[in-house]
Amino acid sequence: MRVMGVDPGLTRCGLGVVDGSVGRPLSLAASGVVRTAPGSDLAERLLGIERGVESWLDDHAPEAVAVERVFAQHNVSTVMGTAQAGAVAIACAARRGLPVALHTPSEAKAAITGSGRADKAQVQAMVARLLRLDAPPKPADAADAVALAICHIWRGGAQARVAQAQQDFARKVELARQARRTPDPHGR
User: Fold this and answer.
1) How far apart are CA 113 and CA 124, in angstroms?
2) Is the CB of residue 63 less than 8 Å from the CB of residue 1?
């Protein structure tokens, strides 16, 4: 499976593409960032992120996209910018019919290091180790995006299977309810 991870941000939107599956070695296809100028108009910055994400989707053809779920911070403008950049990436993937998953920073950290409280240095070191790289992807935003992609490869498949099983079960329950409500045309 090829997954593109997105660490959203207005100034630097981290992107990483990883190939792999559970129980198999992972490999890094690409990592980098889409940059926008802090002094630019918000609409122009979001357009720049969209162009960059679209270009990565064209160039790397992922099968799924994993985006960092925005979490509360003290700085509301930072949260807003992060959420807006994440929404752009989600819309780009949705336009192509790609499945999108949201993972919290602690989920990604736990998947990579075993601890949801790991610091950036620990995450970067494990990303490099898991991908057999001499050094972690640079800048840190790119390494975070790669970590999200790895997290999705390792957790996303299981999450998708659980969600599918829940949907199948709910469908069967509803069919059983409908069958009990439908009168038998033969009076039985």
Assistant:
1) 10
2) yes
Most confident of 4-13, 159-168, 169-178: 4-13
Q: Which of 19, 50, 107, 141 is catalytic?
A: 141
Q: Is 184 a catalytic residue?
A: no
Contact, 153 vs 3, CB < 8 A?
yes
Question: Which residue is it, tokens 């198999």?
Answer: 24
Q: What is the pLDDT of residues 100-152, one digit of tens each?
A: 999 999 999 999 999 999 999 999 999 999 999 999 999 999 999 999 999 99
Quick check: is 144 catalytic?
Answer: no
Please identify which of the residues 50, 68, 107, 144 carries the catalytic annotation.
68
Query: DSSP secondary structure string, 76-128?
Result: HHHHHHHHHHHHHHHHHHHHTT--EEEE-HHHHHHHHHS-TT--HHHHHHHHH
Could you tell me which residues come within 8 angstroms of residue 160 by beta carbon, excluding any fewer than 6 positions away?
A: 99
User: Is 68 in the active site?
Assistant: yes
128: Cβ–Cβ under 8 A, 6 or more apart, which residues?
A: 134, 135, 136, 137
Q: Which amino acid is present at 121? A: A
* pLDDT value for 187: 63
